[in-house]
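User: Can you predict the 3D structure for this chain?
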Amino acid sequence: MAVTKAPEDAYTAQPFVPDRGGLTALRKAAADCRGCPLHRDATQTVFGAGAADARVMLVGEQPGDQEDRQGKPFVGPAGKLLDRALEEAGLDPADAYVTNAVKHFKFTQAEPRKRRIHKAPSLREMTACGPWLAAELAAVEPELIVVLGATAGKALLGSSFRVSQVRGTVLEEEIHGRPERLVPTVHPSAVLRADDREGAYQGLVADLKVAARALG
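Assistant: Here is the predicted structure, written as C-alpha cells:
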C-alpha cells in the first residue's frame, strides 16, 4: 500500500495559495498553510499587514514570540523600534506593508513554559514560504522593498546575499518575475542586540532615509 506524504513534506506553500481575491483571500488561505513543518509548533500563521496600496513593503525574517501569540507582524520590541526609525527617516509606518519571508515562528524551547528562543529558518523553509511572498508582492505592487536583515535578503535575492555589502543602497533586481527596487538594511532585532545600540539604530535610520529618498 502506498504511503501518502503529508503536504509539509513537499516543502512548498504553492498548493495553498489562491489564484485570486487579493490580500484578504491570501490572508485567509495562509491561516491553513501546511507547506512546511513549521506550522506544527507555531501558534498560528502570521501573515503580512498594512496598506494594500502601500508604496513601500518591508520584509523581515519571520514572526517572533509576540507576533506568534498575536497573529500580527512586527508587534514586539523590534517592531516598535522599526516604527520609530521609519518615522525618524520620514516614512509613515501607516503607509507601509510589513511582512516576513517565513510566516510561522521557528523556535527552540528547553522545556514547556520556558521562554521560546528564536531559531533562524532554513533555506528550504524560506523557499517553501516563497509563494506567499510572491503573492503579496503581486497584490501590493510596492514601488520599493526594504529588506530587513540577512534572512529576508537571502529569501529575495539568493543565498549569496550579504547585508553588510549592500545595506543603504538601491538595488534593481527581478524578484518573482517582477522588476523591483530594493533597499537592504539590518533587521531591527539586530539593533536591539547590538553592543552599541545607538550607533546601530542611527545606521538603520540612515538606510531608511535612503529608502525615503528613493520613493521621492
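The longest strand covers residues 178-185. The beta strands are 49-50, 56-60, 96-100, 107-108, 117-118, 144-148, 171-175, 178-185.
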